[in-house]
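Last lecture ended with a question: if I hand you only a sequence, what can you say about the shape of the protein? Today we answer it with a concrete record. The protein is Ferritin. Below, first the input exactly as provided, then the predicted structure, then a couple of comments.
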Amino acid sequence: MANTEGAKKIIADISNHDLDQWVRTDSFSPQLEESVRGHIHQELTTFVFFRKLAADCARSNIALHGFARLWERSAAECLADFHWLEKYLVSRGGRSKPTAIEPPGVEWPADPVEPVEPCREALFVERRLLEDLQRLCSLAEKSGDAALCDTIHNHFMHKEVKHVKDLADMLQQVVRVSKQPGLGIYLMDQELRRTNGSIPWGSANDTHIENNSFSRITECQES
Ligand SMILES: [Fe+2]
Ligand SMILES: [Fe+2]
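The predicted structure:
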């Protein structure tokens, strides 16, 4: 009988508790939670931005289908990051609170087809994602939340640094071929069509790949 009463008391105790608060660590402060939601919001806003570029490039007036695939990939990555971070937020005892998404102000010029301005905007949008992650990371460090720091480093930082560099290279090439209107942009688009929207020089900007080849070189030198 006493055991039954004891079990009932424990069940009542736990039922009255906010279990999210038990999942949370003290270091995961309300301010930190709000900042994670801020990044989730930014990923969604960026998703809409890249979708807009993809839809513009697919128009018959523009018909840059290689570029369209690149922006589709960029949008898909933002959506995946949004989804991943939302799950992470909940796994830390946080709550999702979606807010309104601002419409993108970008429009790919069609007459004439002019890629420089939208490519510059794409670079800045991607860089803003990286800057927001860095802000989030310093806040996590200040709060002593090692788990969040670790997540940002492992899941986001390396690839976002690379994406910014990839898009800066893209902007430079777009500017180069735009100095003389005509064939250049067609050839760039053809290259992107061939890779199905992957950045053709992406592996050149991957520092992990670079490290591997460097260790292979040193291995050869040692043997
Ligand atoms: Fe992202
Ligand atoms: Fe990215």
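Comments.
1. Residues 43, 77-78, 81, 129 surround fe (ii) ion (ligand 1) (CB under 6 Å).
2. The CA atoms of residues 132 and 175 lie 27 Å apart.
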